[in-house]
Amino acid sequence: MQKRLIFFSLFFCFTFIQLNPVTAQDVIRVTSSPNPVGSGARAVGMGGAFIAVADDATAASWNPGGLAQLKKPEISLVGTWFNRIEEDTLGTMPESNGTQRSESNETQRFSEADINYFSIAYPFNFLERNMVISLNYQYLYDFTRAGSFSVKTLGKSETEILEADTLEADTLEADTLEVESLADFQEDGGLSALGLAYCIQVTPDFSFGFTLNFWDQSLFNNTWTEKVHTRVTQTMKTDPEEDIGPSITVTDDYTRWNRYDFSGFNANFGIRWRISDKLTLGAVLKTPFTADLTHETTTDLTHETSTEKKQLLPDGQEIRNTTPSVTHDEELDMPMSYGIGLAYRFSDIFTMSADVYRTEWDDFIRTDSAGNEVSPITQRHPDESDIDPTHQVRVGAEYLFISPNSDYVIPLRGGVFYDPAPAAGSPDDFYGFSLGSGIAKGRYVFDIAFQCRFGKDVSESTIQYLSFSQDAQEYMIYSSLIVHF
């Protein structure tokens, strides 16, 4: 009996990672929309349909080909407040040993406020051409999130759980395995880029521009961290009706820390073509690039075994293993994205716009220090991940209330969008809407926008060891201040 209980104790230890749905994978998850988008309360208020409009300093992030519309030097500052609510559903465990469990739901809430964008733009004339240069900071990806969930499983018998020749099946009774897993996680950090933009008005109706983006760890804290803590308690009862059948409880306490430092370079290219006095076309290409990823990881595992009859196992049997920090140089291939937009100016006070945007998420690949490639979305080899590109569709409008007796303008903006997230099999569907307003008076422009983005039954690729899905709602408030000189 003692050998048998020790065997089960070791078996539980070796199967801990398989039973742990959180620590078994390093899936890169972005809290906000993972698709590369621009900034600014005006653009967001129009549903993000801004590629063909792009007529302020935030154009460097949407379509640098629109910067030529600037007539005066300007400084812009954008702040954001973000709130996300996730309702996680854990369904049936994988087909293993007849294990079953009922569904449970966990709700996670987290919020963040930050400087999203800052720019200085300067228009000038050279060789009889209008030109603009600008220096831009943009906070693009946020990883802030936190939460917890629990899993409780119920197995059948030892013979169904263990496939070991060392145990005689006819000596085993009908046993029960109970497993309770409690997990909590916390992620912090984000990615920013410093952009240097240039635009030239090639003809009165056509302009071309580009933005060089420096994702440099030495310039900004382009770092995100992850901490995952899991406590798994496994209890096996061996014929509880017999006095010779004590229960054995195995507890595994596991903590993993990950830190990622990110550096890279890419460029945005854009054009703006005024087809007529009313219709404008814009197009943008954001190049792919390979980022240097420094990955530091530390783990701590405590394994403890106890029984109802302590004489069957040594008292205080505990195994603790803490690994020192290990750093690996990895690479992260960021995907190419491109979009096209149309804007129709019905009058001086009313404009409508629409964008279509594509991101090649099947080229989003992480390469570890040994040269092994995986999709960060599924943590599987790219050939086995079945990741498709995503297509954003955005529609927006702006109406201006112009005061006839003074120099102020009050805008009213609105938009709707489809903004899917990459996932295995097919993209996760996210939809949303936005509203915006503000006031412009003299050389000062203040804009504010509210955006809601939501998805149902998404993120199934995140945890592959459980039947996992999520309902998510995101709420964002953008505020922008522009000063003309």
Q: What amount of the residues lies in strands?
A: over 45%
Q: What separation lies between the terminal Cα atoms?
A: 85 Å
Large-scale geometry = elongated
Instruction: Say what the CATH topology is.
Output: Porin
SSE succession: HHHHEEEEHEEEEEEEEEEEEHEEEEE
CATH superfamily: Outer membrane protein transport protein (OMPP1/FadL/TodX)
What's the number of extended β-strand segments? 21
- CATH class membership: Mainly Beta
By CATH, the architecture is named Beta Barrel
- The overall pLDDT, averaged over residues, is 82
Secondary-structure-based class equals mainly beta
Number of helices: 6
> How many separate domains make up the residues?
1
Q: Supply Rg.
A: 28 Å
